[in-house]
Design goal:
alpha+beta; 42% helix; binds copper (II) ion; OB fold (Dihydrolipoamide Acetyltransferase, E2P); 5-stranded mixed β-barrel
Length: 124
């Protein structure tokens, strides 16, 4: 009986370790780490009337607080939708107070159907 319990526990541990490993692999395979320097935009005002910069800061803050998705635009005009990395939500939340500011964001970049999404891991 004791041997049965020990064997069962060992098997359970192995299953757990393998599934955790598979999960990690899934994460690292689905994108690439990238650092982007640019301005934090509220996507609603940028997409509808290209609003950005210091004059738009107050509006951008309100839009972002309402939950409108944030985007980052770099000096070449490339746009990245910003998203939360579930394992490190802090830096993404920090960006919500940085509307219209120039920031350096490092994260996991996933590109699908022509859309670039940066899962924020750190902010400078
Ligand atoms: Cu706005």
């Amino acid at each position: 009986m004791r041997k049965f319990v020990t064997t069962s526990l060992t098997l359970l541990t192995m299953v757990f370790v393998v599934s955790v490993y598979a999960h990690e692999q899934h994460h690292s395979k689905s994108g690439k780490t990238m650092t982007v320097q640019g301005e934090v935009l509220d996507s609603a005002c940028y997409f509808t009337h290209e609003a950005r910069g210091a004059e738009h800061e107050d509006c951008a803050k309100k839009c972002i607080q309402k939950g409108i998705p944030m985007a980052l635009i770099d000096s070449t005009g490339a746009l990245y939708l910003l998203n939360e990395d579930h394992e490190t939500p802090g830096p993404y939340n920090q960006l919500k107070n940085m509307a219209a500011k120039n920031v350096t964001v490092t994260g996991n970049l996933i590109e699908k159907q022509g859309m670039k999404v940066l899962f924020v891991q750190s902010v400078k």
